[in-house]
Write a structure and sequence with these properties.
The protein is of the alpha/beta class and about 400 residues long. The chain folds into 2 domains: about 180 residues, Vaccinia Virus protein VP39 (Rossmann fold); about 110 residues, Orthogonal Bundle (DNA polymerase, domain 1), CATH 1.10.150. It contains 18 helices and 7 strands. Strands 3-2-1-4-5-7-6 form a 7-stranded mixed β-sheet. Helix 6 links the parallel strand 2 and strand 3. Helix 15 packs parallel to helix 16. One of its GO terms (biological process) is rRNA base methylation. GO terms for molecular function: rRNA (cytosine-N4-)-methyltransferase activity.
Length: about 400
């Protein structure tokens, strides 16, 4: 299975998720006999209909921190840019409109996003080159296009899921829209890839709690995992709002009403659970690490990187990558500040001579959206941008 291969090849999360690994082994043995799970996702007709409705009703994606991205990428006429998460194409469209004769390589793992990129490519002949694949597949995709390492002028990496995915109920990402509990960013590209319903209906309580703790930083992971196991004994959990109700019912009202988002608005108590499942299903942290490594390989010396993240796990990973940490040896902790201890002091001692040999930060502190941008696009309120120059 794809998840197993990435976990074996990158020991980053292996020890943290030992319980999860064992549970997946049991799940794999029963793969062909299990009847539990959400619908496999939208078929070709449904995906086409969803794409049509997205493109005609409203813009599918509002680009986050567009002004800052354009500033720090510093793209010049005639350069080649890699947009590693095309999404709805907001950043790419702005680049095409503002910089003459630029070429954009548009990567995304979501077939629906690539359909949008193909439409944009028709409107900008030769300037947009769609690439369907994950961050971990980028090296092969670029090699097939005869794009050499060290030849890209600027790279934008926008982590997480897009507004377009959140707005399509049938994708199963949203808490506010009822749909099948899917959450696979790749759609139907990998038939053996488990969806979120497979996770919540198959893994044991310990494994579920491990996922919620590691990927959602959920303080009440054990209570929620216990409630999920109890609920699925009555009926399989196959819908998004079904899972949200189970999570909400597992915690006292005082806990549920106390949760606020970054705008101090009431936040659903299941938000962290949904985040954790989405990250686990899509192997997002390993993919983000693979994307950062790929960006380092394809950028020319003097090229610019902008990496946008949407939660603390992603931001810590990007921060530590850019400062030169060896992430291949992080199997004993999960990007958590609580687990650094003496290791943090040791790393600081090792880097007294100036930090990473590969990256020069373009701004010392992380960049966050301005208040006006948050009002216009509330979904970008938690975004953080880190910009660096390839040495």
């Amino acid at each position: 299975m794809i998840f197993h291969m990435s976990l074996r090849s990158n020991p980053m999360l292996r020890k943290t998720n030992l319980a999860v690994w064992r549970a997946w082994q049991s799940w794999k043995l029963g793969l062909h006999t299990s009847t539990v799970g959400a619908s496999p996702g939208p078929g070709p007709w449904e995906r086409s209909e969803a794409l049509s409705s997205v493109s005609t009703e409203k813009p599918p994606h509002t680009p986050v921190m567009l002004k800052e991205v354009l500033q720090y990428l510093n793209i010049q006429p005639g350069q080649v840019v890699l947009d590693m998460t095309f999404g709805g194409g907001g950043h790419t469209k702005a680049i095409l409109n503002m910089v003459p004769e630029v070429t954009v390589l548009a990567l995304d793992r979501d077939p629906t996003a690539i359909s949008l990129a193909e439409r944009l490519a028709k409107d900008h002949s030769g300037r947009v080159k769609p690439l369907l694949g994950r961050f971990s597949e980028l090296e092969t995709l670029l090699s097939n296009m005869n794009v050499q390492p060290g030849s890209i002028d600027a790279v934008l990496l926008d982590a997480g899921c897009s507004s377009m995915q959140m707005d399509q109920a049938e994708r199963g990402f949203s808490l506010s829209k009822d749909g099948p509990l899917d959450m696979r960013m790749d759609g139907e590209r990998y038939l053996d890839m488990p969806c979120a319903a497979d996770v919540v209906n198959t893994l044991d309580q310990q494994a579920l709690a491990s996922i919620l703790t590691a990927y959602g930083e959920e303080r009440h992971a054990r209570k929620i995992a216990s409630a999920i196991v109890e609920a699925r004994r009555v009926n399989p959990i196959t819908r998004t709002q079904q899972l949200a109700s189970v999570v909400a019912g597992s915690l006292p009202a005082a806990v549920a009403y106390a949760r606020k988002d970054r705008l101090h608005r009431p936040a659903h108590v299941a938000t962290k659970t949904f985040q954790a499942l989405r990250i686990f299903v899509n192997d997002e942290l390993n993919e983000l690490h693979a994307g950062l490594c790929a960006a380092q390989a394809v950028l020319r010396s003097g090229g610019h990187l902008c990496a946008i993240t949407f939660h603390s796990l992603e931001d810590r990973l990007v921060k530590r990558f850019l400062r030169g940490d060896d992430l291949s040896n992080l199997d004993h902790y999960h990007f958590s500040p609580r687990n650094q201890g003496n290791r943090k002091k040791k790393l600081m001692d090792e880097r007294r001579d100036g930090g990473s040999v590969h990256w020069l930060p373009l701004r010392r502190k992380v960049i966050t959206p301005e208040k006006d941008d948050v009002k216009e696009n509330p979904r970008g309120r938690s975004s953080k941008l880190r910009a660096a120059l390839k040495l």
